[in-house]
Structure formats: C-alpha cells, structure tokens
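mind reviewing both lines:
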Amino acid sequence: MIRSSVVTFVSAGMLSPKKRDHVLARQQLYLNYGALSLATKLQLAGHDVALFHGEHRDPEDLFCQIRDSGRFPSIYPLMISIPSFYALPWAQAFCKLAKAADPECRLVVGGRWVVGPDPEWLRGLLPQADVLAPGLSEGVIERLLTESPVLKRVAEPAPGFTLNHLLVDGYRRYQPSVEASRGCGMGCAFCEERDIKVEKLGDAATLAASMALVGEQYNGEEIRPYLQSSMFLPTARWASAFAVETARIGLNMAWRTETRVDAITTQTLVSLAEAGLRVIDLGLETASPRQILAMRKADNPDRYLRRASELLETCRDHGVMAKVNVLLYAGETEETLAETTAWLDAHANAIAGVSVGPVIAYGPPKTADLLLDDWRRLGARPVDTTSAASTGITTMHLSTAFPAEAAEVASLQLSRRFMDEDAYFELKSFSYYPRDYRRADFERDVAASDPAKLPFTVRRRDAARVDHDQTFDEANLK
C-alpha cells in the first residue's frame, strides 16, 4: 500500500445542526482554529499538512475526498478533532470508515471539551481511536506523530505564531480567526472554563501584525476576522495601544469578538471601535437578579446590569453591533423571563440581535452529574437521565413553568422579538456564512426553511413585493 507523507487533520462535522435543523443552519461554517493551531505548528516544523472540515457533509463524502486526493493512507496518524459533543456521531462514522479502509491507520483524536472530561468514557464510544489527547496539544503535537506520550488535560498559552489559513481546504470560504488569549476563570456555573484562569493579552502591536499577516494570506481580499478569546479582557491602555498600532500600520479591517457585558469599560470599547471592532457577542445570559446569582455570573446584580447598560449604549454610539446572548437557566420562571425581556426591551435600540437558548449540560456523567445536581436544587431535571452517558448532551426541563418544549418555544419567541431577517443576515454573514454567500442565497434558503424553526421574524415575501411596487410607483409619480 502506497502511503503519503501528509499529516491530515479532520475537524469532525455534524450530522445535523446543534440547535434547529433547517437549510440556513446548514450553511454556517465554523473554523476549527484549535486544530488549525496544531496544523500550523507542524507546518512550521517542516511537515506537509492539510486541514479538512466535516461541516454538514456526509462523513463518507469527505473521506472519499481525502482518499482520492492521495493524502490517505499516510505514514502519519490521521488527526481527528472533535470540537463539540454534537460532532461525536459524525466522528464515530468517519473513524469507522478510516479503519475499514486501512486497519493500520493510526487515529489520534483530540478536542479538549469532548476528550478531556473522561477519556475512558469516550474510548467506549470511539473504540477506533488509538490515542486520545485530552488537552491543548501544542506542546506534544510532534510527538503524537510518532509515539503515544503521557497525556493529561493541561492548559497551553495562545500560540505565538499566526494561524496559517492556507492549510484549510477551501479556506477562502471561511472567515479567519486570530487567537487573542485563552482561559476565563470567571466562575460561571455553566461554563466549562470557569476554573481555567484567563491568560493576559499579549502585546497589542503583535496582535495587529498577526491580523495583517492573515490579510496577506487572503491576498488583500476583504476579511472579517474573529478575535478568538473565551474572555476578551483588554484594559483601556491595551485597547488604546491597539488602536494606535492599527492606525500606524494602516490596518483597515473590521473584526468581531466576544466577552461578558461587565468585562470591559466603555473607554476600552471606544478604543476597540477605533481599531476596527464592528460586532461583539456579549454574554448577558439573564437580566433577572435571581438568575444572575443562580448562574454565579456576579454577586451584585445591580452593578452587573448597570455595566451592561453602559456597554450597550457605548456600542450603539460608536457603531458596534452588539449581539446579546441569553441563556434560559435552571429554575427559570415566567417572572424571571419577564425581567430579562423587560430589560432587553429597554435597551432594544442598542441591540443588533439576540441569541437565546435553554441551558444544556455537556459532558459524560463524571463531569455532568455535579452540574445536574446543582440544577436539580434549582428545580430543573434532565429530559433523559441516560443521555450524559450515551451522548454527552443533557437537555433540561428548566422548571415546572418551563419544561423543555416550552423553553424552546420561549427561546424562539424572545429571539424573534429582537431580531428580524435583516439583522440575522447581517450578523451571520459577518462571521459564519461562507464568504461568497450573498443576500440572494440567504433569501433562497429562508424560503426553503421551515419558518417555525427560524430564530428571527420573517418578512412576508408578497407583502415585501407590494411595498416595493408601491414605492416604485410613488417614485415615478413625483
């Protein structure tokens, strides 16, 4: 059997979208920047490397593409990254295909959120894996090509190199990523990084230079990078230096990031806007004082919400689209949801869109049980008590007022209250739709989707056509 000398990374896709399955959801692309970091490190060490994304493709289609390209089989292991528990069924199918085609193929499987909590549990669901790498693997990636080093779930700093997007198959379809920092450590009950200390941001000039290098990878085409950071926590001084540096090198690049609503000051936000920040994903989660305390988001709800108000108003005043994340949590009631809704209503003119969903426990029993016990004390209960063991995904009945079905309905209603199709397209196309995905494509896919599953208000096509015709006639009469 002829073997290539290519190191192939595969980011596991999903057999169906993680929230609601419709045509629009299947258009979204998520660049696996963690796998790309490992691929880049190997490429810098002299290896021939390629990264493929499963997206929503059939696992067999992607496997055939890799095999027919001559990359498989290889003298090196096939590197599988599972970015979420929703990608696990896709990974299971792909690994079976690889082992059936080449029983000698060595499968190295990573993905810290899926592998890390309980590698032995995962081994039972993915017996084809030869090596399970539970943590961030930059420090051991070269050894993983030739041996099985002692592995444990460890933290790694953000890489000191620029991600090489040219290694991604079809990279021009993806908006790029620039990793700014790792870790969070803010202690929110539902967060997987609650105990991982946030990493201090590196030099502002270095980050600006990295963004410029990514621009060169795309040959100067318009790109809108996502500054990846579980907790983007710049100081006012850092943000000011970043704005000065982007102006000095002529970096005219719109970008996006995420943070908590109480993590950065208004002065910092102003400087970030000057440096090109155009969309920010804000983790509000709730505006109910009771739920803020239950989530352990903050110990002073009034101060938390006051800072959130100030930040949203600053976003509005400085041209930054704020997408607010809302989490329906364990113990949710009509009263707590009404508090969140009223707060959002009061800030509607500063909100570009809202992403809403009920809380879900991710992980096998070893890690999920502690969280589920906490949620039971708040009045929630699992929909299926066996799902943590079988899938690593446990959906919840939040309370007697919000069983799972009612929580899903409430999530859609709240999202639609603050987001129409224009706002949705603007936010999604900024980062997640393919770079060549146009409004006409979006309109086509909206028409092909079940409107009951869409998280935004859909404009009636016939009404829109009448409005357009009336405007046209009025213009001609003037």
Summary: Residues 463-478 have pLDDT under 50 and may be disordered. The CA atoms of residues 20 and 453 lie 6 Å apart.
